[in-house]
Amino acid sequence: MDRRFSMWADVSSVAISGIKEKDSTSLKNGFVPSATIEKLPDKVLLLIFTYLPHKEIGRLARVCKKWRMISSDSRLWTHVSLRPDISGLHVTNIETLLALISVRFGPSLRYIELPIELITHTVLQELAYKCTSLTHMLLDFSTAMQLHDFSDLQTFPSRLRTMCICLSEVIFMEGFMRKIYNFINGLEVLHLIGTYEKVTEEEEEIYEVINIHKLKSAVPNLRVVNLFGIIFVDDSHVEALSSNCIQLECLAINFCNKFTGSTLKLLLQRCKKLKSLLMQQTSLKSEHVMAAEWDKTVLQELDITATELSTECLIDLLTRIPALRYLCAGQQDGFTDQVMKNGSKRAMSKIW
After folding, report:
1. Closest C-alpha among 304, 307, 299, 324 to residue 248
2. Global confidence as pTM
3. In b/e form, how buried is each residue of 20-40, taking b as 16+ CB within 10 angstroms?
4. Long-range pairs for 4-13: beta carbons < 8 A, 24 or more residues apart
5. Where are the transmembrane segments (predicted)?
6. Which terminus of the chain is more solvent-facing, meaning fewer CB atoms within 10 Å of its CB: N or C?
7. What pLDDT, in 10s, does the model give residues 297-346?
8. Pairing relation of β-strands 276-278 and 162-166?
9. Is 194 left (phi over 0), alpha (psi -120 to 50) or beta?
């Protein structure tokens, strides 16, 4: 991302300096060009600006009053990331952000990413009041050592269809989550991103920083759940989700290494619409996988990378999934020629 922003910065700097050089040369020669960038219609300039990252739009807003006016058009701010490491944009003042939400984002805003320092009750309430088209939100708590006080949080964006929460290693989320449960029952896609990459072998205690057993009751309409790298997630959490989210079509629990598969049978029985099951780098046990009723599913996508299943289990699994279209099974010592040979033609021939 930094390289892309650097590229745009270089391009715009060269373009602006080139315009200035041409203007000065033309004036010296007594020639005034009939077609200049100033004569482009506003709608054309607006279209050009839509191809630029927000950091670059902010730079170009300082060129002239016209460009500043165009850069403030809410149609350029429908998808906004305020995470500086991702977009290069960083708002340090809450009052400034509140003004942006009211004046620049408004009803046009559909997607927003907020870092921990901007996740306050005033910001969330302003988004709920002013950004009525907001359907996608990312809240990044990953670097948090302490949460803001959410005791005064009275409302929250209620039209969200997709929400992503980046969890902290040590901050318990229940105080915040309790405040938003009543507003997120329309969610269809939920991403909970854990701290798998930050965990060291020396760490002893593992904190259950978000209560999935309570969360599942607030989100009955989920179709996609992604629990990535959450070190405390085990079979009980998957069982809890399957008990209340029967519309589930995709479940990803990659890098949740406490999951053994003991609740796979229940999951497949309850979630009849499940089409995608991604279990990379989990601790699946062959006996649990073989106990599941794969032949009664509509499963189309399966990821069992680095799960150390036995050859017998792999043969049993691949011959019992009738609709399988995609299989990812890397780093499997048990995936031998025998697995390929004994896999039914019906199952294996449909895999992309």
Report:
1. 299
2. 0.85
3. eeeeeeeeeeeeeeeeeeeee
4. 4/53, 5/53, 5/55, 5/56, 5/88, 8/52, 8/53, 8/55, 8/56, 9/56, 9/59, 12/56, 12/59, 12/60
5. none
6. C
7. 999 999 999 999 999 999 999 889 998 999 999 898 888 888 887 765 55
8. unpaired
9. beta
